[in-house]
Amino acid sequence: MHESPIINVGGFNIDLSAVLMLVVTSAIVFILCRLAVRNLSVENPSKLQNFMEWVVEFVQGIVASAMDLKKGKAYISLGLTLILFIFVANVLGLPFAVITDLSENFTVFGQTIEATRGIGPDHYAHVLWWKSPTADVNITAGLALIVFFLMNYLGLKLNRKHYLKHYLEPFPVFLPLNIIENLAKPIALAIRLFANIFAGEVLIVVILKMGILGIPFLAIWQGFSIFVGALQAFIFTILTMVYISQTTIHEEH
Amino acid sequence: MKIIWENIFLAMAAFAILYFLLHKFAFSKLFAIMEQRRELVMSQMNEAAQTRQQAAAYVEDQKKALEQARQDAQEIIERSRQTSTKQAEQLMEQAKEEAIRLKTEAVRDIENEKNKAVEELRGELGTVSVQIASKLIGREVKKDQAQEELVDQYLKEVGGRA
Hints:
Chain A: It is found in: Cell membrane; Membrane. Chain A has 253 residues and is mostly helical.
């Protein structure tokens, strides 16, 4: 099992790998979008602009499948950011991983990496620097928490009466069940995304152990992992939209 | 799998920052352009529909004009046919009249000639008969007015009977 490069700064455990991968992922997504909107044109769009517009239309389709597009227009930006961020995060760990064997009390920025603290002079800690950020349950939990806060905040703001009433339906005795249901949503989101991507990376490590024989399997599995990464990004986005739609939109029966 | 709260907050912060940056610097522009394209397409489609309507109206006009021209041509042909028929009838009429006129003239001429010949013959006959009579009687029958009138009168009677 690989360790995380955690340093302790002022009482906070800062995971350098998570910081690095979050920054890389955000930078890639932001640069991609900036390039796509660099020379915007109505009549003669560039290839990248065309691709970006296709993504926008795809997300519009996702939003439209969950709610009325008139109400859902405000969430298209959110859906786009989610799907791009998660997809890029999912595929970042596919081409390679960076693992270093660090000796005892290894320091970065003058801080000791926690995993190397007191392991003895002849032992090394295998520290994983480059991986999919979504292969870390904390990162996916952060994303899921954003969705959780957002859906409950929007429900309270836009649809307060029916949002609160929904906790007592069909009978007041269902209140604990409804609360658990609400809490299960972000947990399911986080675990689903993390487990898929983490399992993909674990299997890559296992195939690498096969040596040269494993090359065809690795090729197949990496191709499949790109598909899984896209699929998980899609699922996360569509579930977000469905949850927001459930809490904010009350349809008269 | 270890819960590290710092990582959760880092992820939330990273995502929130990315969302605001993208929303402000990329997506709003892209949405505006897509909206513009949608409007452009809509206006072009409207224009095309209008053009199609205009074309249909134009074709209708052309059809009407063609129909009108055809009717006019029919009328002109009809009129010219009537005119020519009338003219032909007129010509026939004229020819007939001319023929009748010529015929009457000819008949009158013949009558005139006949009368003239009869007149001449009658004159000749009178002279001859006086000569014969004078020969027969052996004396000169005077060639005077009274006698000639007498002869004429007889001859007329003869001629009228004949």
